[in-house]
Amino acid sequence: MNQVFLKTLAREATVHTPVWLMRQAGRYLPEYRATRARAGSFLALAKTPELACEVTLQPLDRYPLLDAAILFSDILTVPDAMGLGLYFAEGEGPRFERRIEGEADVAALPLPDMETDLRYVMDAVRLIRKTLDGRVPLIGFSGSPWTLACYMVEGGGSDDFRRVKTLMYKRPDLMLELLRRNANAVAAYLNAQIQAGAQAVMIFDTWGGVLGDGLFQKFSLAPMRWVHDALLRSRQEDGIEKPVPSIVFTKGGGLWLEEIAAIGCDALGLDWTVNLGSARARVGQRVALQGNLDPMALMADPAQVQAQALRVLESFGLPQAGVGHVFNLGHGISQFTDPEHVTALLEAVRDFSSKQRKSVECA
Amino acid sequence: MNQVFLKTLAREATVHTPVWLMRQAGRYLPEYRATRARAGSFLALAKTPELACEVTLQPLDRYPLLDAAILFSDILTVPDAMGLGLYFAEGEGPRFERRIEGEADVAALPLPDMETDLRYVMDAVRLIRKTLDGRVPLIGFSGSPWTLACYMVEGGGSDDFRRVKTLMYKRPDLMLELLRRNANAVAAYLNAQIQAGAQAVMIFDTWGGVLGDGLFQKFSLAPMRWVHDALLRSRQEDGIEKPVPSIVFTKGGGLWLEEIAAIGCDALGLDWTVNLGSARARVGQRVALQGNLDPMALMADPAQVQAQALRVLESFGLPQAGVGHVFNLGHGISQFTDPEHVTALLEAVRDFSSKQRKSVECA
């Protein structure tokens, strides 16, 4: 198997900088749009293991330079399995039929059963692992407890997070109870993905960055630590010393890297506002770094895309034992991306990072 | 006149922490909604000096504890005066009839004449100064060159800034030419507001934080430095040694405070992700700090609002000569705010910060 991604998460030396792209199985690919049309809806696509497997592998088939696959699924499968009724209104984002308003709603939230309520996800993981047949590692994922809570309380996306923040400021106890339940479910969900075959897991803390300093630590970071603690316990119960590596990505969390790096994760996802060299100096000895090209850089011409990719690699600096860099975007790839530009990007990362290592060896 | 705000910007000792609120003249006030209804439209309100003056003073009349007034106007008056045709579709954000697409559009952008094209703004400033009659200082403002460019290229608001970033990545030269024109116009605009009576100016860099590290410095920060350089030159030409103080607020710019503090401004606006104590340690000897309560904290009960306000004051730490803190929100106040909660907030800031100073004097 291509071990470059997993070795980098372990901060071991590799022959090049590994790369994958958030949302790499997505609407920018015509083959994805064809499968999506066949499925009839986004949720049907996500809930049918054969189709989820098909789209997960599409970018790997098109781009042999990708170093990892990521499970194709939705970020809101867990609250859906808790009974909130996920749906997608045409041309809009995700919505829930029922949203969390008060104590009774929180108390009624069940811990979903991973092999029944969320069996379609685990079946997809198993099928993808089997179909990948060792080509590249498979990443599983979940939304963070706070990010899930945002959607669960707002009932969908939000501009100002008024409902979820009102609950947090007025009823911090109830918010923490909701987050505790979410953390239990997220831990069970990631654990089940690992048992089904995921070789790394990523927590998308998409909305952690909307919280104030102090509140982020209490309402987003601490629940992500609970998830890590639970994962570690589960692995220990299984007699496995080292859990599979985890990546935590708090969008807009650049000010809190030291604190995020301390919760037990193996890597930090970084958005493009963070200078990789500074991040490396701050936390590079403790965690690997993943990121951080602006997805909109892919809108430029291929040569310009490549120049921007080199800027990212150069900002991280020369490879060195004990630090690790996984090249990625700082957010999901845009549906408006030209697939040829992705080819240019991947070639630049592979070429430049291989040469970087040779220059280090010669020096 | 109440000098507490201006003294704090100069980092001189004051008897309490001054406070004003971004968008303090706004929809959360019933008296504002009444004037807005009388005006017929938001733009009519902004473009009629008597009405702009009326709403600017409304929060001062309701809240005697406010330490500053801010000109009521729109952030997009400058591109409107450049001929782009600002309008507001019902229930939506600002839109332009014409947007910037290519070289010809940029080349055609005129430098507006401040006393004809934007006379309604200068008349409002003069009328507000006269009507305030020395109660509190008046803050003028402008959008940053980059923030204006975002709206000018997108044609309105945006989720992903695809158009403006595509232009930036594909045609950095043309983007810089647009920013140069915007910077000239912003400098002339702020300068005219100062000559009309503004006693401090604020630059709202609302969208600087969507730029990657390295690109922020080139496409948002540098143009704001050009504005400051131009303001300084104008004041020197007028034989005035010290220009009026300026505040720069880059939302999401917490990683770049040192660089922003170095462009010649007197204060930094901070959003709520930034810890005030950390910011003080980083740049507090060079600039005053303004912020940074989450506007959504005002959704909680009054006692909870006050507790959150104290957290902000405590995070800044004890007042001391050579540092300055202007209490504010980290973003504009929400239209859903209960005006009574603002009273609770202002009382807490005044009481606590006065006592803080007495405790320092006694120590």
Can you walk through the features of this model?
Two copies of one chain form a homodimer. The mean pLDDT of chain A is 96. Chain A has helices at 4-9, 30-39, 42-47, 49-62, 77-84, 103-107, 119-132, 145-154, 162-170, 172-196, 215-237, 257-261, 276-283, 302-316, 339-362, and strands at residues 69-70, 86-88, 94-96, 138-143, 200-205, 246-250, 267-269, 288-293, 325-329. By secondary structure, chain A is of the alpha/beta class. In chain A, β2 and β3 form a beta hairpin. Helices cover 50% and strands 11% of the residues of chain A. In chain A, the strands form two sheets. A seven-stranded parallel beta sheet of chain A has the order 1-4-5-6-7-8-9. The first copy, chain A, has a two-stranded antiparallel ribbon with strand order 2-3. In chain A, α2 packs antiparallel against α4, α9 (162-170) crosses α10 and α13 (276-283) runs parallel beside α14 (302-316). The longest helix of chain A is centred in the middle third of the chain and has 25 residues, at 172-196. Chain A is globular, with a radius of gyration of 20 Å. The interface between A and B is large, with 38 and 38 residues.
